[in-house]
Amino acid sequence: MGNSATHFPHLFSPFTIRGVRLRNRIMSTGHETGIVDGTGINDALVAYHRARAAGGAGLIVIEVASVHPSATFVRNSIKLYRDDAIAGYRRLADAAHENGATLFAQLFHPGREILESLDGSAPPSWAPSAVPNERFHVMPAPMPRSLVHDVIAGYGDAALRLRQAGVDGCEILCSMGYLLAQFLNSRVNLRTDEYGGSAENRLRIVREILHDIRAKVGDEMVVGIRISGDEMSPEGLSAEEVLSICAALDDEAGLDYFNVIAGTSTSLGGSVHIVPPMTVGNAYLAPYAAAVEAFPGCFGVPGGLIEST
Asked: The domain containing residue 164 runs over which residues?
């Protein structure tokens, strides 16, 4: 601990974001545990995160939860589009708070990134446009505007359920080539309506989600965005594109932080960065977070930027 305090002088100091105090800068990032079963949040998942809180983590981010019935991803996932998820999140919040940790939870729609279904059949896959992915060979259907609007409302409703459960914040996934990253990508989003075309139109769905969440949860809940600093894939978002996206979103009054990672689910090369092998250097993602922080127009939101390393 002495060496940590020397090399990382801020690591054990508190951090406040939108009035929510983190006891230190140690963050357990959102990751799929494989613990969730058909019942959703279970005793094993609560115990898993209680251990991290008891171990001293300042912030725990719970793995992705589907915000809409169309958000098919894996067979067993947390379904936050239903009210019966609230009780499970309340148990997680209580376990974190009783041990001094702060709790955020991830809001998610995979778009065309589908891994499996309940019965082995190919479920409907939705994306901004009918552009297939490389890794899973999924050909999605273009989302009708009515579904886009329903999904936007689904994010807000899911955030409200988290708020009702006592969770301190929510993290919107715009990372790893999932649905919102698909909308942001001009090579995947070929729409000709108000959600496609110009950079501002491609940002529209994220802005509307932010507005809907803030309208439903009020001013106290923390709202962040997780985004890949570089999707590291030929058709993915480049580092330059991501910097422009972050600068454009940084003026949103309801947004509190960016959590910067890298890679994408859509290609074999990009997916390596979902769970990097041990040969990858420690903290190799920090430069991407630093680039967002240093980019003109970024880092203006209250609370600043959280790095995932």
From this structure: 2-307
Q: What angle do CA 76, 27, 241 make, to 5 degrees?
A: 80
Question: Cα separation of 34 and 45, whole Å?
Answer: 9
Go through 225-259 and write b for each residue having 16 or more CB atoms within 10 A of its CB, e for each that does not. bbbbbbbbbebbbebebbbbbbbbbbebebbbbbb
Q: Is 284 a catalytic residue?
A: no
Beta carbons of 265 and 177 less than 8 angstroms apart: yes
Checking if the pLDDT of 302 tops 80, the result is no
Active-site residue, selected from the candidate residues 81, 155, 178, 288: 178
Averaged pLDDT for residues 47-60: 98
Q: Are strands 15-17 and 20-22 parallel, antiparallel or unpaired?
A: antiparallel
The answer to whether the beta carbons of residues 231 and 263 sit under 8 Å apart is yes
DSSP states along 130-145:
S---SSS---PEEPPH
DSSP state of 220: S
Query: 134-143: which pairs have CB atoms within 8 A and are 24 or more residues apart?
Result: 134/233, 134/235, 134/266, 134/267, 134/268, 135/265, 135/266, 135/267, 135/268, 135/271, 136/112, 138/112, 138/113, 138/114, 139/112, 140/111, 140/112, 142/191
For residue 87, report the phi and psi dihedrals to the nearest 5 degrees.
-60, -40
CATH of the domain at 15: 3.20.20.70
Gap between the Cα atoms of 300 and 298, Å rounded:
6
pLDDT digits (tens, 9 = 90+) for 163-178: 999 999 999 999 999 9
How does 170-196 read in b/e, with b if 16+ C-beta sit within 10 Å? bbbbbbbbbbbbbbbbeebbebeeebb
Looking at the 3D structure of the chain, how many domains does it have?
Answer: 1
Beta-bridge mates of residue 15: 22
pLDDT per position as a tens digit, 25-51: 999 999 999 999 988 899 999 999 999
Task: Render pLDDT for 79-92 as a digit per residue (tens, 0 to 9).
Answer: 999 999 999 999 99
